[in-house]
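Re: alpha-L-arabinofuranose structure - here you go.
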Amino acid sequence: MSKKLLYNLLAAVMLASLVLTACGAPAATQPAPAEPAASAKKTYADMTLCYPQLGAESDWRTANTASFKQTAEELGAKLIFSDAQQKQENQISAMRACIQQGVDVIALPPVVEDGWDAVLTEAKNAGIPVIIVDRSVSADKSLYAAHIGSDMKLEGERSAEEFNKKFTDGAKILELSGTTGSGAAVGRAEGLRNKLNANIEIIDSQTGNFTRAEALPVMQAFLQKYKPGEDFQGIFIHNDDMGIGAIEALKAAGVKPGDLFIVSVDGTRGGFQAMVDGWFQADVECNPLLGPQVFEMALKLMNGEPIEAETLTNETVYYPDKAAELLPSRQY
Ligand code: AHR
């Protein structure tokens, strides 16, 4: 090989290695990789929320359903809604269908407290968080993400305080209770008994299943058995719809507004009207407008953000003196 050829060859090798070095330039000179960040966060547009509503038994429930539908629409989230007609088996089937579809979150308003362990375990195994809404469940807390709703026991305690204030010398009262085994009925009954003065006796307690239609015959049967004013002086009614059913029976029996001291729960427009008309002497608030809180928590769960395990609604007691003034602005 001639010297000239050798030099040319060496020069070519050096040039090639320079080019290669330039291509594999150190990282410091390369542009930084784009941030993965913000776009990875889920929004309401990504959300499918399942709401197996327990029924349509009361004005409270109608307002609760409307709150979920309206919130989903406003936020642009997808809502899978069903009505279980107050039957637990229907709620469980609806939940199973939602698990099959792979929804992001299930919000469950349980008709009764017991019997949820199996389906909650199925949701957990499928990686779908469950928010218990409104009434409580007896299942282990590890099976669901959180509970958002009213403090039903406190509502019962507040009702007891109304009877205690009215009947300082004692009285006999009746109880028209909600759906047997439901967190709302169990809590309200327990709260009433916790706080009721010893000189006030609950002489009878029957369920009206939270509906007007079922409360009416229960009140009629009470009136066959007990004489208003003599055998009992007051009635604790677990919701306004049953109160309205009871009023029909009382009217038919000749009872006048104010003859009995009646405390109801919910604070619906119907309850406010019953206060305006003189039938209810207090209405303990139970707020159904839970949609916004539930969707907000569902989004946090989808993004792996921390949430509160228990959120109890801040509520009050309404009285006849402000009922007429507040009635027009009531949302439910
Ligand atoms: O669980 C809430 C209760 O259910 C409300 O008091 C009642 O009106 C409803 O049906």
